[in-house]
Specification:
By secondary structure, this protein is α/β, with parallel strands linked by helices. It contains nine helices and 19 strands.
Length: 354
Amino acid sequence: MTWPGPDPGMKPIGWTATEDEWYVAEKRELLHDWLTGCERGFVSVAVGHNADSVRTLLTGLGMAVYDAGLSALDLQVERVVELDPQVLYCSPTILWRLVAQLHQVGAKLPSVRRVITNGEVLSEAARTAIQQQFGLPPESVMDTYGSTEVGTIAATCTACGLMHFLDGIYPEAVPPGALEGQPDLANRPGGDRCVLAVSSIKRTSFPVIRLVTYDVVQGLCRVTCDGRERWSIGRVVGRCDEVLNYGELFSAHDLDDLLGSAGVARWLAFNPDNALIVIGEGSRPQGFTRDFAERFPLHQQLIDLGLIPPPAIHFLGVDYDRFLTRAGLPTTVSGKAGRRVHHTFEAAWMEGLC
C-alpha cells in the first residue's frame, strides 16, 4: 500500500450542497442530547467550511445564535457579555483570547454551560483556562476533530473523556518508516503517539482510503464505552508536516518562498499552542512586515482583528547556529536544518541572542 507524501500546495476541496446537509445533520445528532435545554449560542470560528455550517447547526437545534464572523475581538467581548450565552462554539485560539479578555475585564458569563471547540489543537493549558473562567467541569467542554477532506472525524466523549471516532471513520497508525524521506517525520513520534491515517466513504464525492492526516495523535486504541466498542484517542497533539495551524492553515512552503525571495536561506518556524514563531538567519529584510501581510492577507486580517496573536519573527544574524545548538536541532552537512516546522519552543533558547 502506498502512503502518500505531503502535497506542497494547499488545494481547496469543495463540498456539494448535499454533503453540507449531511455534515450538519451528523454533527447535530452528535450534539443534540448534550445541548438539550440550551437556548442561546455564541459562535466565533472565523472562516472556512466549518464557519459556514456552525450557525446552521445550532439554529437547527432551536437556539438563538450570534455569529461573530470576522469581527474584532473587542467587539466580540462586548457582544458575548451582552448575550451571556449558554453555548460557546469557537476555535481554540479565538476562545483562549476571548477568555483572556473576559478575565481582564472581570466578566464571568454565568450562563455558559457548554463549550465546543473545533479547527485547531485544544491544548491542556487552554482547556484548563476555559474551565476555570466559566467554572465548568471537564465534561462540559467538547473538542471536535475533523478535516476538510473527511468532515468530522472524532469528538470528546463527555462520559469517559476520550475522543471517539464517529461511525464510518476507520483510523489506523501510519507504520513507522512508511513516510521515510519526507520532512514530516524528521522528529518521529514515539510511545503511545502515532501519525494518523483514516479511511471513510461517507463523503461520496471524496472517499478516502488510508488518507494520511499528518496529525499526531496520542493513545489510539479500541475501548468499550457505554456498552459499545469503538476506536478512540486521548487527544490530538499537533501536526508533523510543513503546515501550521495559525488561525487558519498556514503553509511553510509559502513562507519559504517569501523568505527565499528576501535572501533568507536558513529559517525555522515553530507552532506552539497554535501561535507562530519564525527564526531566521541574518538581518531582517527591509519591508518584511509589509511583505508578510501581503503574502498572507487572511492571517493578517485575523491579526488586525485581534483574533490570533501577531507572529514573533526574529532574525538572529550570526547567532542562528547558536540557536540551533540550544534547541538541539540537527543540521545537515550543508548547514540547513532538516525539518523547518516544529511545535515545541522554549524562550530560554533565545536568551542573549540578537
